[in-house]
Amino acid sequence: MKNLLETMKKISISLLIVSLSIYLTIFNSCNQPECSIAKKHENGKAEIINCIINESEKYLCHETYFETGDLESKFCTRKDKLSGEVVFFYKSGSLKSKSFYKDDKREGTLINYYENGQIESKCDYKEDVMDGERFGFFKDGRPYYYYFYKNGDFVYFKKYLYGDDSTIIDEVFKPIVKIEKDTLGTDVKHLKFSAELPIPDSLLNGKELYFAYQMNPISFRDSIIDEPAHRFRIAPREKKSVNLPLTESSTQLFYYHVFQKDKKLIMNPTEIIITVLPTSLGSSTVGAGSFD
């Protein structure tokens, strides 16, 4: 009787294992994505493979391959828009880059790699626009450059120059300047503009920066003005709005640069043509850029 019970127990366990195996096989086959080769290389090997994850949501995942058969990239789309992580590889198989997309727009951090595995660059994105930090590195891992972006505009740049016994850091501060109108009528007496430097306090690191500016005649074009007539101290994240008096009723140059106090260093010298037209023409013309 005891032997019979043991035998029945073994049979029950065996049936349970077989049933579970059949269930898992059916479950996996039902949830397995449907994949197909969308394109082939001339040598017959797959170039693009598409897999349907959810047909009703048009959710597909894709893989691309080199002619050698090695994986080149992996990414997914929802309703024909990039969605999720996008990864690229070198022919050697090592990771080349990875980024994240949402509704076809790059979001988060893009990382590029050297073939030896070291990070080449890192950059922050917001709705497909560079916004935040961007780092660059040499193949040995040493810092190469650093940017800070605001809504697609770089407002700070730093480059590392390595000598035998020292490291020199070259910096540029680049404020965002917006002009209300760059085409004016002869009855307009002021040029309205704003300037701001939207960077973290840590990047300024105690430096005292000034925004210097003035209006110049067209004959001064391509000239750097050592000491412009007007200036104000520029601080991180503080927008300064200015009404600059116009002394001439003719087309002129709006010139500006940034400089650091106690250092003879001019950064980002810029000139913008301010066109002055007869009032009947200039008053209806909208200039470049926005002003608020």
Rounded to an integer in angstroms, the radius of gyration calculated over CA atoms is 31 Å
Averaged pLDDT, please?
85
**Would you report the number of β strands?**
22
> Can you tell me the CATH topology of the largest domain?
Immunoglobulin-like
Percentage of residues in helical conformation? 10-25%
Distance between the termini: 94 Å
Quote the beta fraction. Answer: over 45%
Q: In the residues, how many domains can be counted?
A: 3
Please give the CATH architecture of the largest domain: Sandwich
Q: Helix count, per DSSP?
A: 3
Encode the helix/strand succession as letters.
HEEEEEEEEEEEEEEEEEHEEEEEH
Oligomeric state as shown? single chain
Would you give an account of this structure?
By secondary structure, the chain is mainly beta. The protein has three domains: 33-89; 107-173; 176-282, Sandwich (Immunoglobulin-like), CATH 2.60.40.2550. 13% of the residues lie in helices and 52% in strands. The strands form three sheets. Strands 1, 2, 3, 4, 5, 6, 7, 8, 9, 10, 11, 12, 13 and 14 form a 14-stranded antiparallel beta sheet that branches. It has a five-stranded mixed beta sheet with strand order 16-22-21-18-19. A three-stranded antiparallel beta sheet has the order 15-17-20, with no helix packed on it. β21 (252-260) and β22 form a beta hairpin. The radius of gyration is 31 Å and the shape is elongated. The chain starts with a helix and ends in a 10-residue tail after the last helix.
